[in-house]
Amino acid sequence: MVTLAEVAQHAGVSASTVSYVLSGKRSISATTRQRVEQSIRLLGYHPNAGARALASSRSNIIALMVPLRTDMYVPVMMEIAIAVATTARTHGYDVLLLTGEEGPDAVRRVTGSGLADAMILMDVELDDERLPLLRGTDQPSVLIGLPAETTGLTCVDLDFRATGALCVEHLAMLGHRDIAVIGEAPAVYERHTGFAERTLDGLRSRARELGVRLLHRPCEGGYDAMAVTLARILDERPGTTGFVVQNESAVEPLLALLRQRGRAVPEDVSVVAVCPEQVAVQASVRLTSVAIPAQEMGRYAVEHLVAKLDGRGTDEVVLIAPELTVRASTGPAPSGRTS
Amino acid sequence: MVTLAEVAQHAGVSASTVSYVLSGKRSISATTRQRVEQSIRLLGYHPNAGARALASSRSNIIALMVPLRTDMYVPVMMEIAIAVATTARTHGYDVLLLTGEEGPDAVRRVTGSGLADAMILMDVELDDERLPLLRGTDQPSVLIGLPAETTGLTCVDLDFRATGALCVEHLAMLGHRDIAVIGEAPAVYERHTGFAERTLDGLRSRARELGVRLLHRPCEGGYDAMAVTLARILDERPGTTGFVVQNESAVEPLLALLRQRGRAVPEDVSVVAVCPEQVAVQASVRLTSVAIPAQEMGRYAVEHLVAKLDGRGTDEVVLIAPELTVRASTGPAPSGRTS
DNA sequence: ATAGTCTGTCGAAGCGCTTCGACAGACTTT
DNA sequence: AAAGTCTGTCGAAGCGCTTCGACAGACTAT
Hints:
The structure is a homodimer of 339-residue chains. Chain A is of the alpha/beta class. Chain A has 3 domains: 4-47, 434 Repressor (Amino-terminal Domain); 61-153, Response regulator (Rossmann fold, 3-Layer(aba) Sandwich), CATH 3.40.50.2300; 160-293, Response regulator (Rossmann fold, 3-Layer(aba) Sandwich). The first copy, chain A, has 14 helices and 12 strands. The first copy, chain A, has helices spanning 4-11, 15-23, 30-43, 49-56, 74-90, 104-113, 131-135, 160-173, 186-190, 194-210, 223-236, 251-260, 277-282, 294-309, and strands at 61-66, 94-99, 118-122, 141-144, 155-158, 178-182, 213-217, 242-245, 270-275, 288-291, 317-320, 324-325. In chain A, the strands form 2 sheets. The first copy, chain A, has a 6-stranded parallel β-sheet with strand order 2-1-3-4-5-11, with helices on both faces.
């Protein structure tokens, strides 16, 4: 392993000079800099991460806590994770992957050990156990998702309330009067994951304002669960012509089931999904959807953290405005026959 | 930040004693150990990661390189990543998330800086640029996937050749004589990703042995691409009654399209998928499938690395035997009408 | 010319831990 | 009773880097 000292000797300067060349924290003459840089290249020098972390109390690592569950939103999680990793690298940071398994202890461990300089938390619950710890440390953090109480925290998320409103609006505008919402799995609501409840809020209040009827049913993903849920919905509200689907693993099953029942999309029934773009365009009917801006959230989270670590930036809550893209799964409500 | 020295002082022992209590590398009397452990708890001490890494030249971090592309096998990748992170924690390791973006440089950086003690590489190509670097370092590594040349490397993977053979066998046994293979996206083959080619090998050679006809067509995921691919296949081989699907994002579209053409699964047509269990059971028809043992691979990779880091363990290639689970998507070939 | 200001470089201290050799004391063995 | 062996603990060195204060030399303003 090549060390700083060896580079210094090779370049005929002192160790501190090499360090300053590397960090740019003091001015160095052009000739010296070049000599040092050449030595670094020649010797194939890489600064030792541990030593650097010890001396500077900066690890240049951002911790990313992903949910342990692989049952929901997998593509979104993955996309966020990759956006985080990629963005972090462009700022000279690496990413430590933590699973939710350790829970609050992970936060303690990371902040206590100086393993990471900052944290990004995904899958935040409304009243998350980790929040008091975050507030109690001076380590910067960003939540992807919105807890109940955000004071002293930085959060990014899609504005799910507006998303819900937007979906209802779109369907209402097309004349749909009876709308069913295929929600996330019951467990997601029990856990009080913010986004699910906020979407529902948005859906409900806009539905009330616009005078459309709304039926919300949680649904596990998969074909069988969707079949049961759909049967119940059509039983209870036979006149349903609009669907809002939040659980992406229910999308394709729903389309298949509707087809099976002879209900054409979008002629008889309209479907709006809240899902990543890719899912929307790859579905068997190109879906009118509100995209979940996974990449954008990941990138924002990292950039905010970097700013904070550089002494810039403040706590704030950023809600990304939803955008509804009209594709082939929504159309005017069939005239007359709505209940 | 609480330091070792403070713990030592609090417990009335020397710093080295505390260190030995922590590492267990020398025997410590029960009473001293207890006193130290109590002080650690009381003060909320966490060893500083950087200092530890510097002094011991061990970071207790395992690097995981995931593919940058989010276009293929997302659930599998995610499942592996989570299995890796979880398993690593049980052995006292953390996981650093690297994307393929940096390519070989990432390997250089990690080994050079001592950021991680070992690496796990996913999405290995047959002739991967990173392999020479891995061979040239003494840092342990495990590949998830199989390159062309494995000497000096440790690899885990599903035995895709056997998987291909198994799928053909199952269909042949049921009387299917004309089998179509829905492969991965063309780009995957162009990249020479090992698993795709090996599966194909297994399919072809077993098909030859059993005297069944095989038609292989690469296919991008999604409904539209699948529609085109299916049309071509049925055009060329109208008597096709068996399908093997490797691209999981083609599964649901295929089922929808077959239904649409009035071909019932499994009465008229049988479908075998190579995909994670979850996808198989959640599909609109419960799929006969060979599961991709994502968790098992992730766990194995970590455990092998830990063994190597502990001075045990050797280089070897482990191919996990495929298991075909019969579900509702395969049945006897329709009698008489096969071409 | 003198004092004052930059610029570029160096030396040394120290970050918090691990680990090696030393060694005191208790306990065997002859 | 002397020599040898363990066991448990300590002190000190050192891991490779950052950073602070010092300072020589060049330059500017008076």
